[in-house]
Amino acid sequence: MEQYDVLVVGSGGTGQRAALEAAHQKGLRVAVVTKIYPTRSATAMAQGGINACLNNVAKEDTVETHIFDTVKGSDYLGDQDAIEYFISRCPEGVQEMDYFGAPFSRTDENKIAQRNFGGQSYPRTCYSADKTGHVIEHTLYEQCLKQGVHFLEEWYLLDIIKDAEGKVAGIVAWNMKEGRVEKIATKALVIATGGAGRMYWTRTTNPYTSTGDGIAACFRAGCAIKDPEMMQFHPTGLGKTGILMSEAVRGEGGYLLNNKGERFMKKYAPNKMELASRDVVAKAIELEIAAGRGFNGKGLDAYVVAELRHLPKETILEKLHGIRDLAITFEHADPLVQPIPIRPTCHYTMGGVDVTDYKTAGTVIPGLFVAGEASCVSLHGANRLGGNSLADAVVMGKVAGEGAIGYVKENTGADLDETAKLLDEAAANWDKKFVEVTSRTNGRPVVEIRDDMANTMWNKVGIFRDEKRMTEALDELNKLIEEYKTCFVGDTNRTFNMAFINYVEIGSMLTYAKAVVMGALRRKESRGSHIREDFEKRDDQNFLNHTLITLGKDGEYEVGQRDVVITRFEPQERTY
C-alpha cells in the first residue's frame, strides 16, 4: 500500500499546479496519479491563451472589468463571490508561471503579450503563440520534478475510498503496466481529472482521455454534480473532425463567412462580431447552416469558413502556426491561400463536481478537493470565456493545493489499519470485477454502446435542445446503461489491457451523460450554452439557480437546486 500526505489525480495544468503548491510545503509526501504521461494531458491542447489583467497592452483594463466580463459571459449563472476571488488572483497566477519559466510571447517592451478574445472588453489574454497550454504544462512538469513530486504514471483511478467517518482515506487505481489494482492511502485528495467531452465522441475538441473519470468517482463517493447541462460548444472546430481551431484566429482578426461571402456575425453581435462570447457565435453558425447559408448542405458535413487571407503572412506564421498545421493536415486548407472549413464542436465541461468552498476547492467530503474542468465552483456558469480555462487551472489548482495543505495540518488522517482494510476490500472487489468483465464471451460490444451514446448526445442533447428529443435521449441512455452491465469487452490480458480501461471510461461517460440530460430537462429556459428551442428566453425568476444531481441510496439520480450567488451585478440582457 502506497502512502502520501497529498495525492493528486490528474496531471494537467490544474493537477500539477496543485501538486506543486503542496510540494512547496516541506515535509509533505506528494504524488500525482495519471493515466497517461504527464505532458500529454489535455492542458497541452489549449491553444489561445490565459486571461489576466496585466495592462501590458490595454492600460485601461481593470480586474473589475474582467470580473464583470466573466459574470456577463456566464449569462449570470456564475457565483459572483467565487468569480471575484478567482479573477483577482489571475494576475498573480500568470506572473508565477512567467517566474517559473513559461516562455510567453512578448511585446516590444519585453512584457507578456496579450491579445483579444471573445466576450472580453480589452485584450487581456496572455499567450505563447498558439501553444499556450503546451508551454504551461511543460513548465509545471519541470517545477514538479524539481520539488520532488512523485508521478505514478499509467495508473487509472477506479474509486475514492472513505473511512467510517466519511472522510477521504485513499483511492484504488488500476496499474496498466502491471495489470493489477493498486492501493493508495492519503490524508488529502485532489481530483483534477478534467472534463467529459468525449461523451460526444465524434464531434469534440477533447482528447480521448477526457472521459469524466474523476467526476464519476466523486459522484459515487457522495458529491453532487452541479450544472451538468452546461456543455460548451466551441464555435470553430475544424469542419471534418471537430479538432480545435483556437479563438486566437478570431482574436488576431480572422473573419467568419457564410456561402454568400457575408460576415454573418454582424446580424447576431453587431458590436463584437466574431469576438462575441462562444455560445453566441456557435449558435449563429448553426443558424446560418440551418438557413441554407452554409457550405455542403445542412447535414453533419455542412460548415462555414474562417477567412485569414487578409491577415499579414507574418501573423499567421508566427502567432498561428499550430493552427495552420492543423488546417493543412486535417482540412487540406492552407489559411495563407484558402479559407478554413469550421463548425461548432463540444469543447468544455462547465458543470462538474460541486465545490462547496471556493477558497479551498473543498467539497462535502472532508479531505476531498476538486479543481479545474472536473469541478463546478461555479466560475464559468452557463458559458466560459476563452482564456479563463487555463487561468482556472493555475489559479484554482494552487487554491486546491493550499486547501489540501491546510487540511493535512489540521487532520491526522484516517486510521492506517482501518484504511488498509478498506483499501484491501475495494481492491479485491475491483479485481473480481476485472475477471468477471473481461471473461465474458457474449453481450453487446462496449464500443457499440459508446458510439450509440455519442450519437444520442450529439443529435438530441447538442447545441439545440427540446423536451421531446431529450426525453428520448434519457430513455436511450438508460437502455445503454443496462446494456453496459453485461457488455462484451474481449481482452483477458492484464498488462496494458486498454479494452478494460475503455470499458471503465465509458461507464464514467454514461454516468455524466445521464446527468447532462436530466439537468437539461430540468432547466426549462435558454441560458448561455443551454439553448432550448421550446423555451427560447432566459427565465431568471425560476432558473437563476444551479442544478444539483446526487446519487440516491437506491442508485437513482436525484435532482435539486441551489441559488446563484449574486453580489454586485444584477442580471441584465446579454448583448455583444
**Strand segment count:** 21
- End-to-end CA span: 55 Å
Number of helices: 17
Point out poorly predicted stretches.
none
Q: Tell me what portion of residues adopts beta-strand conformation.
A: 15-25%
CATH superfamily heading of the domain at 421-544: Fumarate reductase/succinate dehydrogenase flavoprotein-like, C-terminal domain
Helix content: 25-40%
| Bulk shape | globular
CATH architecture assignment name of the domain at 421-544: Up-down Bundle
Characterize the biggest β-sheet: 7 strands, mixed
Q: Describe it for me?
A:
This protein is of the alpha/beta class and 576 residues long. Among the domains are: 237-345, Succinate dehydrogenase/fumarate reductase flavoprotein, catalytic domain (Flavocytochrome C3, Chain A, domain 1), CATH 3.90.700.10; 421-544, Fumarate reductase/succinate dehydrogenase flavoprotein-like, C-terminal domain (Methane Monooxygenase Hydroxylase, Chain G, domain 1, Up-down Bundle), CATH 1.20.58. Helix content is 37%, strand content 18%. The protein has helices at residues 13-23, 63-73, 80-88, 90-100, 132-146, 213-221, 248-251, 265-268, 278-290, 313-319, 321-331, 388-410, 416-438, 446-460, 467-484, 498-522, 540-543, and strands at 2-9, 30-34, 50-51, 114-115, 125-126, 150-153, 155-162, 168-175, 180-191, 225-226, 231-238, 255-257, 304-307, 340-349, 352-354, 368-370, 375-376, 464-465, 531-532, 545-551, 557-563. The strands form five sheets. Strands 1, 2, 6, 7, 8, 9 and 16 form a seven-stranded mixed beta sheet that branches. A five-stranded mixed beta sheet has the order 17-15-10-20-21. It has a four-stranded antiparallel beta sheet with strand order 11-14-13-12. The longest helix has 25 residues, at 498-522. The radius of gyration is 23 Å and the shape is globular. The model has no long low-confidence stretch (mean pLDDT 96).
